[in-house]
Design a protein that fits this description.
Layout lengths: L1 H13 L1 H27 L2 H9 L5 E6 L5 H5 L7 E4 L3 E10 L2 E9 L11 E5 L7 E5 L15 E6 L2 E12 L4 E2 L2 E2 L2 E4 L1 H8 L10 E8 L5 H13 L11 E2 H8 L1 H35 L1 H9 L4 H42 L9 H27 L3 H7 L9 H7 L5 H11 L2 H33 L10 E5 L5 H9 L4 E12 L8 E7 L11 E2 L7 E5 H7 L6 E6 L2 E11 L9 E4 H7 L7 E6 L5 H11 L4 E5 L5 H38 L1 H9 L4 H43 L10 H28 L2 H7 L1
Length: about 775
């Protein structure tokens, strides 16, 4: 063992450049891997810790108070699969305002923040005690500002007019997240909620019961769907007012931004690990060739084949262990901003990124990967007799192949052909290097095409819910005609787009789908179909990408279901991006909506202003003059897409740079090892008259040939990476779809120029070093 360690340590010190390269490669690979795995596995830790501490609800159901009584809902505690039922809360959704902030709020009647199921975390202030007090939760994803705070009045538009509540407490509600984002809620005493809800007619702002359930045993989505169906089946028909809310959905939606960043990091982690595998394998293969004489001397002095294998692997593991040990804390530290983002959202302590078993496993996995990659060349080297290794010198294993012969017949300048033959005579090692460079160029392609694709997504403002200048919500006691008259009286308003939403129940699907009726010129507001066309008649519908995927629908198919027991059917004329709707939904003309929901009136109005109008001034005037009829509010999502995608672009650029550096290091190492293992042949070439320029051309052609071949593979692979990242990873989570990016001539030239720069960087230093060594010195040492 001492002999093996002596050989390993001597080899590491003698081949310092190679050792540093392995250490740097493993450093960067370990940093990216630990970052991605930590974000993926720990990003929901804050939510899960809070969920356990509050005995959170696995399932939250909403019932129509006009169909069932509180006692009937409470009786569902005995349904099979229900472990416990929390306090049944009376609920009504109404427009509300606090200062300049206007939004819809779900008001719940609850006696206190405690209880057996779904306890609330009162993070600031106290629980409401008097009829004019309310506690609110902090809504996130609104550019960091659009949430109700305590200490100010909240004006709620009720059926009897505006009612003021003093916000006395702020609550952390872990189940205030659904597939559409965060839910603004307010809690009052039960008697107050009953007063607010009593006069409200059935509809979107109807009296409802909110019931939180704990489910026994398995709490998978399939089990929760079955339990929700059993609960609904135990009540009269039409009792379930909206789709159940599952704990997994709330957990995912509470930190969707962190998970989106994590998904990007994960894709780059895979690319980084591929690069590490290719580079380490090529370095090991080259190292075995470059140090074959050293290994032959060691075997002649008594190293057994097993010790020789251990020596070669150890020569890689020592720098790999040092590099990975330095990269692990960097990756963990880099994950801290992602984890703190989730914790800040939920108002809970930041979870530690350190998970000792996981971190030890990642470190051991990286070393195991390096050892596994080194095993093949090590076994091959150990099987070569010492006398053969000492006799053959640099030429061992390098007999010309058919590919090398074919390259030699291309008719290129002699120096260039010699450099390309260096690639062909070591096909396995060259292919490994080719793979590493191809991954690097694929990542470069992804980085250069991701930003334009993301910009096109951000520009599709309608899909983010931000195509309008501001929104208006109709008060429950107001009619559509009254709101329309109030808006028409404002000369600054150029146009409006009105809508209302019902729930479409689809056979075979546990959760209902939002069915939105639209009145007005939707395409003029930026709504468009990604595939197909916008609806043109009452028998057509445009569906969201997520709905098309869930129901396996295409343009020309029929989407059907029931709305409050009434049958609905329409032909799919188009499929759209609908990020604001969580990627789900069906949109139809207003005439079709009225036929399925008799007496329906729009309750949401998207407003566009004239060119010179000031949105803030118009919003303030509407709320002051017509506050009893409507609530005007700024667009929440309007600027969020730009900011979020801007951060995402920076993240992609930074990660791509790291992997491109890895690829450049790979070309450098392989070029250096190729020069070192053939230094005797190069010395002979210089002795017979090869000029310095010809020598540089020969070495440069080696890297150039590899890089050009890698570009032919890497650029198409990069376009596939972009499509996978945008659509399969991010798009499937948010319900959007983008066409695969295409390369502009300028972008293509930039990638080719980057590839040439990598080749030049990787071969310039080895060529310069080889030129400085006199041919006589090399031949004498051989």
């Amino acid at each position: 063992m001492r002999a093996v360690w002596g050989y390993v340590w001597a080899a590491v010190r003698r081949h310092r450049l190679q050792s540093v390269s392995v250490a740097v490669i493993c450093f960067m690979g370990m940093a990216l891997t630990s970052l991605a795995v930590t974000v993926f596995l720990r990003s929901t830790s804050a939510w899960e810790d809070g969920f356990r501490a509050t005995n959170g609800a696995h399932l939250v159901m909403t019932f129509d108070a006009g169909v069932v009584t509180r006692a009937q809902v409470e009786a569902t505690a005995s349904v099979a699969g229900v472990e416990a039922l929390g306090e049944v809360q009376e609920s009504v959704t109404l427009p509300a305002a606090q200062g300049e902030l206007h939004r819809t709020i779900q008001i719940l009647g609850r006696s206190d923040a405690g209880g057996a199921v779904g306890r609330l975390n009162l993070v600031d202030g106290r629980w409401p005690r008097s009829p004019d007090e309310i506690a609110v939760n902090k809504v996130v994803l609104d550019e960091g500002r659009a949430h109700f705070g305590i200490g100010q009045d909240v004006a709620v538009a009720t059926a009897g007019g505006l009612r003021l509540f003093r916000a006395v407490g702020q609550v952390d509600d872990l189940m205030a997240f659904d597939s559409f984002g965060s839910i603004q809620r307010g809690w009052v005493q039960p008697a107050v909620a009953a007063e607010l809800a009593a006069p409200v007619a059935r509809g979107d702002a109807a009296r409802q019961w909110l019931a939180p359930y704990r489910v026994s045993g398995d709490v998978s989505d399939a089990r929760l769907v079955a339990t929700a169906a059993a609960i609904g089946g135990s009540l009269p028909s039409g009792a379930v007012a909206k789709a159940p809310l599952y704990w997994s959905v709330s957990k995912s939606s509470s930190n969707w931004a962190t998970q989106a960043f994590g998904a990007v990091v994960y894709v780059f982690m895979v690319a980084a690990l591929l690069t590490v595998v290719f580079l380490v394998a090529s370095i090991v293969a080259g190292s075995v060739l470059a140090t074959r004489r050293d290994l032959g001397v060691g075997k002649a002095l008594g190293l057994t084949p097993a010790q020789a294998v251990a020596a070669v692997i150890g020569q890689m593991l020592v720098p790999a262990a040092l590099g990975a040990l330095a990269g692990l804390p960097l990756g963990l530290a880099s994950s801290a901003p992602f984890l703190s983002s989730s914790s800040d959202t939920l108002r809970v302590p930041v979870p530690s990124p350190v998970d000792l078993p996981m971190d030890v496993g990642l470190y051991a996995g990286m070393l195991g990967l390096v050892g596994l990659v080194a095993l093949g060349p090590a076994v091959r080297a150990a099987g070569v007799p010492a006398v053969v290794a000492l006799r053959d010198g640099p030429g061992w294993g390098g007999h010309p192949s058919r590919l090398a012969a074919a390259v030699d017949r291309l008719g290129l300048p002699r120096a260039v052909r010699l450099g390309m033959v260096d690639v062909a005579r070591r096909p396995v090692r060259s292919l490994l290097t080719l793979g590493a460079v191809a991954v690097g160029l694929a990542v470069l392609t992804l980085a250069l095409t991701f930003a334009p694709a993301a910009a096109s997504l951000a520009a599709d403002r309608a899909s983010w819910g931000g195509a309008q200048d501001f929104d208006v919500v109709r008060a429950p006691q107001a009619t559509d005609a009254e709101v329309g008259a109030a808006l028409a009286a404002r000369p600054e308003i150029a146009s409006t787009l009105q809508s209302a939403t019902a729930q479409l129940a689809v056979r075979g699907r546990a959760q209902s789908i939002p069915l939105t009726g639209m009145r007005g010129d939707a395409p003029a507001f930026g709504y468009r179909a990604l595939r197909g066309h916008w609806f043109a008649g009452p028998d057509e519908a445009v569906i969201a990408g997520g709905t098309a995927k869930d129901l396996d629908l295409r343009v020309g198919d029929t989407v059907s279901g029931t709305v409050a027991g009434r049958p609905f059917s329409a032909r799919v004329s188009g499929i759209m991006n609908d990020i604001a709707g969580g990627g789900l939904g069906v949109r139809v003309p207003w005439s079709a909506f009225e036929s399925i929901v008799p007496g329906a009136q729009p309750n949401q109005y998207q407003v566009r202003l004239g060119d010179a109008a000031d949105a803030k001034r118009v919003i303030a005037a509407l709320n002051e003059d017509d506050g009893a009829l409507l609530q005007a509010r700024p667009v929440i999502w309007g600027g969020y897409a730009d900011g979020f995608l801007g951060i995402l672009n920076s993240l992609v650029g930074g990660l791509a740079t790291a992997i491109i550096v890895l690829a450049a290091a790979g070309v450098f190492n392989v070029a250096f090892l190729a020069v070192m293992e053939r230094r005797r042949e190069h010395a002979i070439l210089k002795a017979v008259g090869m000029s310095a320029r010809q020598f540089v051309a020969m070495v440069f052609s080696f890297g150039l040939f590899l890089t050009v071949c890698a570009a032919l593979i890497g650029i198409p692979l990069g376009l596939w990476f972009e499509d996978y990242l945008l659509n399969a990873v991010m798009g499937s989570q948010w319900g959007f779809e983008l066409p695969q990016g295409s390369l502009s001539p300028l972008t293509g030239l930039a990638i080719v120029a980057g590839a040439l720069a990598v080749a030049l960087l990787g071969t310039a230093i080895p060529a310069r070093r080889a030129l400085r060594v006199p041919a006589a010195v090399v031949l004498h040492s051989e």
